[in-house]
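Feature request, filed as a ticket because there's no other form

It would be nice if the structure record came with a short human-readable summary line next to the tokens. Right now we just get the raw output. Example of a typical job, pasted below so the devs can see what we mean:
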Amino acid sequence: MFNNDFSPSPGYLTVAMEPLPPAVIGDTVALKCSFRTDGNLREIVWLRVDGGSVKQKIFTYDAMYNSNYSNMEDSHRQEGLVYQSTVRLPEVKIEDDGLYECHVGIYDRASRDKVVLASGSINLTIIVPPRSISVVAADSPATFSRYEAQNFTLVCVVVGGKPAPLVYFKRDGELIDVVAYAQAQRRGTSQSKGQAGLLSSQPLIRRDLDDTKLQRSLSLLEPEGKPAEMGHGRPGPADYDREQGLDPDPELTTEAIPETVVSREFPRWVQSTDPLYYFQHRQQETSDGTMEVHAILTWSLNPQLDNDALFSCEVKHPALSMPMQAEVTLAAPQGPKLTMSPSKAKVGDTVRITVQGFQLGLSANEVFPEPLFTWTKVGGRLLDGREEQDGRELVLERVPAELNGSMFRCTAQNPLGSTDTHTRLIVFENPRLKKGRQHFIARDKSCADKFPGPAFMLLLLTFVAELT
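Raw output as currently delivered:
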């Protein structure tokens, strides 16, 4: 509120500044300085304080040379004159944030040569709404593991706000109840994982074996009931539990499962339906004076429950009339669609097999998090001798005729699941190569007389080698 507490006295001058609410960048701001005096006005000076001691003059009114009071409003009271000087700052920028001073001088009524000075100051705060918000998956792309549970981390990146915004996560529209990272450290229940070093809670989740498969496996035991060796050194269910720090079931440790059955079974991880979400908030100032905030959410992923779950990051800020939001839906990849170029490959061509959509920088089927693509050749190695290759495109340089009919597999996987797509390469004869070889042989028969015997054969073999 404006301070009207003036105390008149002979030759007095009092100055008061009207409080300012925070101003949003781009607004027009009015700085108001009110003063009361019974003397004659000498001057008004407005200053902007830069860096503590450096002051920049932004407005001056000198009564000796001006009779125009357009900058001021006045009213006559018994105590004297009340003035209000207003300075307007149009379309304020973040650089306008800071301290402003209003200095007023009057002539003393007792002595015209004496000037009485007074001043007031006010702080202008410029707030800036965030420019952008996005949600990314840490450590992406990443593989899928059906053998063990894994932590998953979402990072919400908010850029351009001043002051730093309030950031929080929701799942399927409901606010997520989180545990602060510092609190988790004090409990000593975390372990290193993820981009932010955020960690999961309690010991992971134990494994359960399907009862039907267990009974079928037990029926294959030898009639004598003598416990067989489990997989010739391969870990069984109890061994896997011990590796995870869990107490194995006593009944399972007394039974044996033949290797042929164990090799076909995949452990099933039984996970909590109500995981603990760990939260960390980081911020740093950017070169333009605004803040960049990283809000980090980590939990133990459950592919069965988290697939198709909608996670949203929301931002509250005093410069926003409503929350800012970014959403992602977790999804396991479906079979990737593949394109081959050229569509009708010939011997000697360079063939490119590409995941459709990624050529243009688009997300395949809008899958989040981004899948990891791995290429393999069914029944053998790739053309360059490698067993597999990662990437969104497989390039086969100068394909030989021997690759005709070869099957290539593209595996797309992310932490929620894995899927394969196969494509067969059909290689056609290249008429240019065949015609070139025949033409060379026919034309150079006449050279046999010039290059008899081994010399002609060496020339012919050299050309054929270049064609192949």
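Something like this underneath would help us a lot:
The two ends are 90 Å apart (CA to CA).
Helices lie at 181-187, 211-218, 237-243, 250-253, 259-262, 303-306, 431-443, 454-467.
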